Amino acid sequence: MAVGPGFFLSCFKFSLDLKMMRGNSQNRDTISIWIVEDDREYRRTLAYLLDSVSDMQCAEIFYAYEEVQAKVESAEPWTPPGVVLMDIHLPGISGIDGVSHLKQRLPGVPIVMLTHFDGADVIFRALCAGASGYLLKDTPLDETVAAVRAAYHGGTFMPAPVARKVLHFFTQQQPASDYGLTAREKEILRLMGEGLLQKQIAEVLFLSPYTVNNHIRHIYQKLHVNSGIEAVSKAFREKLI
Prior knowledge:
Blueprint (H helix, E strand, L loop, with lengths): L4 H20 L6 E6 L3 H12 L4 E7 L2 H8 L10 E5 L7 H11 L5 E5 L4 H10 L3 E4 L4 H12 L7 H13 L10 H11 L4 H8 L3 H15 L4 H10 L4
């Protein structure tokens, strides 16, 4: 699918800003980036421009997720990326399925989806699969750079139109799943919602702190969250407890 003119028109302005970006990022760590994208012109342009930013390096470019899978499953030594930018509509294995698989292999690596404007259900599925952000392919390059940096440092980025659509979709959903939480996990999640610390939860439930920590780790995995605050917030919002 062809990329809209907004992306390529932004390239000219972005190139004029590169000098300023270099000056502002001298003290930043270099962010290694993998791009997974089947649109040849788009991926080459995106890789070239990201390489032009001093704190970024496009380390690998893949046409399809199967190439990524071969890479991460290879016996040859390889270095994990700092951020992955992945098209959601890839040939063969889709970007959504690719996110699920790659998060198992590289759980600490943020993955930002690249696509044209999709329905809220597609966005929701990508986020639930483990994506850390969502970028339209017409997003100006300065915002793309900001999104990569945000993802690398543990944040998220979504354009305002996408964020509004996701928020509306969430508010329309009825709690249709308990995410496979066990009774014990729900009990621990409820105690977390009451403000108890892990040690206190262990004392209340007559469990070891190690066991409680394992349960909480499983809760995070099932709810696709990274902190207790996120877990409790999601549990209240979706009436899980």
